[in-house]
Amino acid sequence: MRHLKWTLALAASLLSGAASAEISGNVVRVGVLNDISGIFQDTNGMGSVEAARMAAEDFNGGGKNIKVEIVYADHQNKADVGNAIARKWLDVEGVDAIVDVPNSAVGLSINALLRDSRMTFLASSTASSDLTGKACSPNTIQWVNDAWATGNTTAAAMMSRGGKDWYFLTVDYALGKGIEAEAQKYIEGHGGKVLGSSKHPLGTSDFASFLLQAQGSKAQVIGLANAGGDTINAVKQAAEFGIQQGGQKLVAFLLFINDIHGMGIKVAQGLQLMEAFYWDMNDDTRAFAKRFAARPGMNGKMPSGNQAGVYASTLAYLNAVAATGSDNAKDVVPEMKKFKGKDKLFGDTAIRQDGRVVHPMYLFEVKKPEESKYPYDYYKLISTIPAEQAFRPMAEGGCELVK
């Protein structure tokens, strides 16, 4: 009798395991959630949707005829809007993973919602370091940048080139505050000084008063702790004030190739910026960029680092689905965390137990107009920060110790 009970229990356990390791609804749905109409529409927007579609096409069923659908929505840079979309995707529409999500407030809200659900959060554009800190979730993988990496590596690279005194122009929400705090900690910890900071609202059009304060501070480096249209407007107006011609260095913490294209290389020349991806880095990145530029609606545009991150994280997720036979985060995310190797777009890459994807970061300088030989030939490489130095060390225990 005891033997029969043990046999029945084992059979039930095996059946339970088989039932849990399955693809819900016989299709894997990936939802691209981003800003389609606002300040991040060029760096993310429909370009991210095309990048996710490219990943699904390259996955090609994973050798198991796995069906993949890509859906998308605009979170309008509002946490409540993003949360409502994610909840509908989770509860009603059978979406299995959410990817992209620029805007840290929206990303942190999604991160909290999906914790302990069956959905995976591929936070390829959410830059808050809290995703691998106090808000760490076993359902989340964070690709491309974060505030710690952006703040520390950019500050370190600039200080190594003599930039000791800083002034910040910072967007007044989680992203900007996080970048400034991380950079200031590094600067002051390595003998530098922060001479001041000006906070501005998201979507600011007039930076004149902020730039005059930065110029008047005589700081060697003016750090732009913002992104998208805000950074573009600040750089354009800094050129009008002749800030770089006056000897001050302008450095952008979160700027992408699309932003440089939008403001024009003449305006952006000499600007320093930190990137995780550049389309013209090697044969693999160029091949991806050429395909991306030919996609519907792209009209020859080169991909941003965020769009490359959508492709890489979506493909990594789908490969993990194929490996486990499941689209449940409890199966897929641990499988993703086994990866350590060469990513075609981001180079030497590993996915840590806290969900942070580590890869090299690069300090670039925008070329002078006469140095640019072809469309989107905008960057020259100044220094490379190896993966092990580019990101905050993982807390002991990864996400396990974070409640």
Automatic annotation (TrEMBL):
GO BP annotations listed: amino acid transport
Domain Leucine-binding protein: 28-367
UniProt signal peptide: 1-21
Entries under InterPro entries matching the protein: BCAA_transport, Leu-bd, Peripla_BP_I
Hydrolase recorded as keyword: no
Alphabetized SUPFAM superfamilies for the sequence: Periplasmic binding protein-like I
Keyword entries, A-Z: Amino-acid transport, Signal, Transport
Family according to the record: Belongs to the leucine-binding protein family.
Name this polypeptide is given: ABC transporter permease
Species of provenance: Bradyrhizobium centrolobii
